[in-house]
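Team,

Forwarding the record for the chain on the shared tracking sheet. I've put the sequence and predicted structure together so nobody has to dig through attachments.
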Amino acid sequence: MNTEKLKGLQISPAEKSRPQRAFWSIVIVVAAVLLGTIIFIKPWAKDKRELAGSGAEATSNSISTGTEVAKTTTGSPAQKNSTAAASNDSVLTVNGYIINRERIEISPRFLGMVKWIGVKKGDAVTNGQVVVQLDDTEYRAQLHQTEGQLNIARAAVERDELNYQRITNLISNAVESKQAEDNARLALAADRASLQAAQGACDLANTYVGWCVIRSPINGVVLEKLVNPGELVMPQSFGGARGPSTALMAVADLKDLQVEIDVNEADLSKISLNQKCRVSPEAYSEKTYAGTVAEIAPEADRAKGTLQIKVQIVNPDKYLTPQLSAKVDFLKE
């Protein structure tokens, strides 16, 4: 009985061989998969090597290009020496802005209306040239009125002079009294005072008429035109954004230019009054102009730690424009 059970549990040789065949089948499949993977990965490795090679070539090209640029920028030894010589003669280099030494805003002397403007922005003007005319109708009427009062005062003085002479003659003949002479003399003095007052009123009215014709105070260029014909202008502002203008135009002499710069307080010891400078406008770096330190501010800016310096430009030309930036080299003494 036990022997039969053992025979039933025994595995035959045929059944043992089947798992071995399955095992080798699995091995073959795995080998095939690995081989396919290797074949698939090999072209990618080649592409990576090609990409790496092209990157190295680009890097070498960029290095060589950078070398060429460095050579071009550096220039010849002569250029190096000239640059060094240009920098060795200065003790400090600071950037600033070109400004007009004097900017004049022409304003009226009284409230009036603009009647005519004879210039526009950028026009050249000369000293004494008529640039604006204000409406003078009211002031001319006042002038005519005072001229009439002046003529009346003159007539009164002439009448009193004749009267005084007549009374003086009568007194010599003992016809008139001394009191009549005194009255005539005082009346003549009063009329002469009235004549003087009328003359002053006439001169004042004539002055106002003259002030209606506004002239340029300098030879220069119109920087801004601030009003147009028909607008009201006044000598000062009383606040408010829509009040009358307080200036007619701004003029300046473009042959009188300076460079305004802020110098760090640590560099003030390198600057002195009347020190020679070299000015180079940023817009025309190849041009240079002689200059001198014309003004050193008496007070520093505590917030910025700087002091304002103004350098007068000698013989400026058309290339120098106000409000453009410029470089200033302070030369050695």
